[in-house]
Inverse folding.
């Protein structure tokens, strides 16, 4: 029996004039990287907001660590790290001092600061003011902030947005290392198929609020052996998913 760290049941968010997320049933396996893929405006950020309890669902449920987010939100959040939109930091402070503040907010000591700085490859610049960092370095600092409590689950919403190819490569390799290094489960959202293909074990494809496909990367490739992955992806977006989106 699969061990799912996240399960949603008919998760829905409706606004007056639109349905942003429509009966989504996520099943995210523990210890793997789940790529949450879809165009801009597909419903990825809204779904992640509901997973964190930041957005109230219109209907449906969220279970994380086999607990209902409505009843156990604070207990669940203590084991989650996240970057939603852009990471927050104090530009006039060093990377090290920013991580001290993150630790203070979470009620942690500073024992993990050195390790997470090493994990995101910022040890050599730990005393440099963050306002002098490149965008890629700032993004890696944001991931370090999310890792400071050594969470079981990491949620990253479009973490490579705006980065140059070198920065994208750095973030990609960092994310790929986390399950093996820490036993961590990672959900990463993106609108870029090629990035998710290089990172994820499992993939969910969402468009117009509907989960059109959910399964392994191999299952996605094998769903239409006569087409390449990009053709399969756009075919799913255009015509909808099949049984794998249950």
């Amino acid at each position: 029996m699969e061990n799912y760290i996240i399960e949603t049941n008919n998760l829905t968010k409706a606004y007056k004039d639109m349905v942003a997320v429509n009966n989504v049933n996520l099943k995210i396996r523990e210890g793997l990287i789940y790529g949450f893929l879809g165009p801009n405006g597909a419903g990825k950020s809204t779904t992640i907001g509901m997973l964190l309890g930041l957005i109230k669902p219109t209907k449906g449920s969220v279970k994380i660590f086999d607990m209902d987010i409505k009843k156990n939100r604070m207990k669940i959040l203590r084991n989650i790290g996240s970057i939603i939109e852009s990471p927050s930091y104090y530009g006039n402070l060093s990377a090290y001092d920013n991580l001290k503040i993150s630790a203070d907010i979470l009620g942690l000591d500073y024992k993990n600061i050195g390790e997470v700085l090493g994990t995101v490859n910022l040890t050599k610049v730990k005393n440099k003011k963050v306002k002098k960092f490149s965008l890629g370095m700032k993004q890696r600092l944001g991931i370090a902030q999310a890792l400071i409590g050594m969470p079981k689950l990491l949620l990253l919403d479009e973490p490579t947005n705006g980065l140059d190819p070198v920065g994208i490569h750095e973030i990609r390799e960092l994310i790929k290392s986390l399950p093996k290094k820490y036993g961590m489960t990672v959900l990463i959202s993106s609108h870029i198929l090629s990035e998710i293909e290089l990172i994820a074990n499992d993939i969910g494809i969402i468009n117009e609020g509907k989960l059109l496909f959910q399964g392994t990367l191999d299952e996605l490739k094998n769903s239409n052996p006569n087409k390449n992955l990009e053709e399969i992806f756009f075919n799913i977006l255009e015509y909808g998913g099949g049984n794998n989106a249950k």
User: Anything to note?
Assistant: The chain has a mean pLDDT of 92. The chain has nine helices and eleven strands.
